[in-house]
Amino acid sequence: MELNLDIRLPRDSVSVPAVRGLLEASLRSLGVLAPIREDIELMLTEACTNVIKHAQDGDDYTVRVTIMNARCILKVIDTGTGFDADEVPEPSPHAEHGRGLMIIQALADDVRFRSFPHNGALVALEKRLRYWEGSLGHRYAHAGPDGPPDASGGTPLDASLDGPLDGSPHGSPDGREPGQRA
């Protein structure tokens, strides 16, 4: 089972709830357990909000979602000036802002940052999925070439990560690298 969403959005705060709603509907339709959906939605919200607040010189950004069997990979790609995640200061314990990257790193199973100085940045997140018994995701999460496994069994799936986060192209939906203009 594989689901792919590629969405180019304006760098505007109204885009965040729109893309979050699309992802939530997809995850819910597949039968992803609510706590996992909530983690993914929060990670996406934080990554998109960081683009809107901090990506300078970029008018748009791309959200690329791949749901493959029992894992979800989110890539948020902006066309701004790029950033070095190692140079982002730790927020103070009482800070109300500046916690986005820390939240993302706490919730994701894997996080990778890639910067293209003066051409944008890529934040790639991976989360293991767990499904309700009998859901589409449960039936197909470990399907082989002959179709889905037997839908019997009583517990949600908890599959391991099997492969690198950066196995697919990082460019924009039309094949360009982040920040590359048409």
TrEMBL record:
Q: Give the Basic and acidic residues compositional bias ranges.
A: 173-182
InterPro entries named among the record's database cross-references: Anti-sigma-factor_SerPK, HATPase_C_sf, HATPase_dom
What Pfam families would the database entry show?
Answer: HATPase_c_2
Which keywords does the record carry? ATP-binding, Kinase, Nucleotide-binding, Serine/threonine-protein kinase, Transferase
Which residue intervals define the domain Histidine kinase/HSP90-like ATPase in the entry? 12-120
Composition bias (Low complexity) maps to: 143-156
Q: What is this protein called?
A: ATP-binding protein
**Organism for this UniProt entry:** Actinomadura yumaensis
